[in-house]
Amino acid sequence: MVIELNGLITEDGELKLDLPSGLPRGEARITIEIPAEPAWTEDELKRALQITPMTGAEIVAAGLTGGWEDMGITDSVAWVAEQRRKRRERRLRRMER
């Protein structure tokens, strides 16, 4: 049986709620769902998710070009393999602790 109730968490950390009469005695599983307060209005969210494409010239002017070579990486496959090896070693060191 599932019963949904509204409750209030006080500043003292107590949960206050009114139980309906006639509930059977015994253990119960309590799930607390705290509603998220909307931080954005619907209009703000629409504006934030709006995409304005850039031209190639705008992309270059904004400095959004480059790639592996700008990071000093000459072999992308070797670089990825090295990153995975380092991550594996860190994970093993954490497990040994």
Note the overall shape: flat
Strand order of the largest sheet: 1-2
Task: Kindly estimate the percentage of residues that lie in beta strands according to DSSP.
Answer: 5-15%
The whole-angstrom Rg is 27 Å
Average pLDDT metric = 87
SS-derived structural category? mainly alpha
Largest sheet: 2 strands, antiparallel
SSE string, helices as H and strands as E: EEHHH
Q: How many helical stretches? A: 3
| Poorly predicted segments | none
Termini gap: 45 Å
Number of domains: 1
**Total count of strands:** 2
> Residue share in helices?
25-40%
Structure write-up:
It is flat, with a radius of gyration of 27 Å. The chain is mainly alpha-helical and 97 residues long. The mean pLDDT is 87. It has a two-stranded antiparallel ribbon. The chain has one domain (7-96). Helix content is 35%, strand content 6%.
How is the secondary structure organized here?
Blueprint: E1 7-9, E2 15-17, H1 42-48, H2 56-61, H3 76-96
Antiparallel strand pairs: 1-2
